[in-house]
Design a protein that fits this description.
heterodimer; A: about 260 residues; alpha+beta; Fumarylacetoacetate hydrolase, domain 2; eight-stranded mixed beta sheet; B: about 260 residues; five-stranded mixed beta sheet; 6 helices
Chain lengths: ~260, ~260
């Protein structure tokens, strides 16, 4: 794709986000769209958000489970940017009917960094040493592509299908929890709907953050101290609508809950 | 109330136990006896247990089956069941399981409770279970339905000792008050690849609920769980088929690992 096409796609996606409408998959319109093109589109989309006053507060990692990788026929994760207006607090109402198009919730572990991580060459030891704490998190993903009919390039261009997220109010040092075996229980409207464990995301959520640091490092982009890194879902995505209440608990870490309005 | 007579119960127990001991499959028994009741099904299971004890086998524990939503959906049944564990079912951690002795084994990640006080139903709840629990251990069950293609209904599987065949208990133990049993994570790997994941809540919302249900189901037959009983709570994950040469490792949050190999 050429520069004009990339810019135009980024603008279209930004408009779809702010005006809450969906687009035809980019992969149907551009046969030759590469994953790298898609990241450039995503950069344009996030640049528009920053111009409108949003502050980047972290990154999210997606496509970390084997099921989703097989569905999209890719064998690597993807990432997107988190802005301050995506973040909600424990117990707060999340206005999905006002802000999102076709939301789905997923339980994750958020990493809060206390040191910069600059790839390549980052190992899990570096990630653990640079992590201040881990926090339970609900990410509510959304797609600006109609009916979630996405290929990997579509979701990458669409800022890794970022929507909104809520962080719990319990922070735990990574030295206090086994991030690979920690269990996750997700409840929706009082019913347990899924369980999982840390290893669901690339074998360990730590592997995901390491992958991100090394991938961004190739483009000279660091993970910065203070950033929030959402490490990838440990359970299947769950569609949500206004009126739903969900909670997630993670063994050895804590809970996060969210009421959708 | 039962609809089968004593002779039919004994014949069916022999039929199903022979299938287990000779490692061959059979059609589900409700095909031939559509009128059999749950009481008949448990009578057959208890008759198999009596046959083993008469032969000198020791009963070393109990198990719950079909306790997770994943398993109930996988098998198309709507209620859990129980079975017993005989001495020769036990395989040491890291040990070998002879695939030829089984029909079509599947591996399940579980936990085991060991009691220090009797549990007498009805009316047992999870508070009673936690108070009566001496410790919790990681455990893996190898199930092996004697029914062709693992196809059965709830009555048939109860009669077949709830597909019990082998189990492996891990070497760690923990007091229930030191574990977050609802959120306790498990990761199952076959030949080094992660194939199943889950947390304790997958078993009836909390692992201790499974033990409470066992006590209450046993009470329907005037039985109880004595102190010192080893109880497997049922699968946290879906069951995974294995073939000769496969090895498994299940990792438990805070309870180490349990492994084994099929030879």
């Amino acid at each position: 794709m050429n520069k004009e096409q990339i810019k135009a796609c980024g603008d279209e996606l930004y408009n779809a986000l702010t005006q809450k409408h969906t687009l035809k998959p980019l992969t149907e319109r551009f046969d030759d769209i590469s994953i790298e093109d898609a990241y450039h589109i995503s950069l344009q989309m996030v640049e528009r958000r920053v111009q409108a006053g949003a502050k980047i507060i972290g990154k999210k990692i997606g496509v970390t489970s084997k099921t989703v990788q097989n569905m999209l026929n890719v064998h690597q994760p993807d990432f997107g940017y988190l802005t301050h207006d995506m973040a909600y607090s424990q117990g707060e109402e999340m206005p999905i009917s006002q802000k999102l198009i076709q939301p789905k919730a997923e339980g994750e572990i958020a990493f809060i960094l206390k040191k910069d991580l600059i790839g390549p060459g980052i190992t899990n030891a570096d990630v653990l040493a640079a992590t201040d704490c881990v926090i339970p998190c609900f990410e509510v993903v959304d797609s600006r592509i109609e009916n979630w009919n996405i290929k990997i390039q579509d979701t990458v261009a669409d800022n890794a299908s970022c929507g909104l997220f809520v962080l719990g109010d319990k922070a735990v040092s990574p030295s206090k929890v086994d991030l690979s075996t920690c269990g996750m229980v997700v409840e929706k409207n009082g019913k347990i709907i899924s369980t999982g464990a840390g290893a669901a995301a690339l074998g360990s959520p730590v592997n995901c953050v390491t992958w991100l640091a090394n991938t961004l490092g190739q483009f000279g982009i660091p993970l910065k101290a203070g950033e929030v890194i959402l490490s990838g879902s440990l359970v299947p995505l769950e569609p949500v609508t206004a009126g739903d209440f969900m909670s997630v608990s993670i063994g050895g870490i804590g809970n996060a809950s969210v009421r959708f309005v | 109330m039962g609809n089968l007579n004593k002779q039919q119960i004994e014949n069916l127990a022999e039929h199903l136990e022979n299938a287990e001991l000779q490692a061959h499959d059979v059609t589900k028994i409700t095909d031939e006896f559509p009128d059999m009741t749950y009481e008949d099904a448990f009578d057959i299971q208890w008759e198999i247990r009596r046959r083993k004890e008469a032969r000198g086998n020791k009963i070393v524990g109990m198990k719950m089956g079909l306790t997770s939503w994943a398993k109930m959906a996988q098998m198309g049944v709507e209620h859990p069941c129980y079975g017993f564990l005989a001495d020769y079912f036990s395989i040491p951690d890291g040990g070998e399981i002879k695939h030829d002795e089984l029909i079509h084994p599947k591996v399940e990640a579980e936990l085991a409770f060991v009691t220090k006080a009797p549990l007498q139903g009805p009316g047992i709840h999870i508070g009673d279970v936690l108070r009566a629990t001496d410790f919790v251990m990681p455990a893996v069950e190898i199930i092996d339905s004697r029914y062709r293609d693992f196809k059965f209904d709830l009555k048939s599987v109860i009669a077949d000792n709830s597909s019990s065949s082998r189990f492996v208990a891990g070497g760690n133990m923990a007091k229930p008050e030191d574990l977050d049993l609802k959120n306790l994570g498990v990761v199952m790997e076959i030949n080094g690849e992660v194939v199943q994941l889950g947390a304790g809540a997958a078993v009836l919302g909390h692992p201790a609920s499974s033990v409470a249900m066992l006590a209450n189901m046993l009470a329907e037959r005037g039985e109880h769980i004595p102190a010192g009983t080893f109880i497997m709570i049922g699968a946290i994950t879906a069951a995974v088929s294995v073939k000769k040469g496969d090895n498994f490792t299940v990792r438990y949050q805070g309870l180490g690992t349990v492994s084994g190999k099929f030879v």
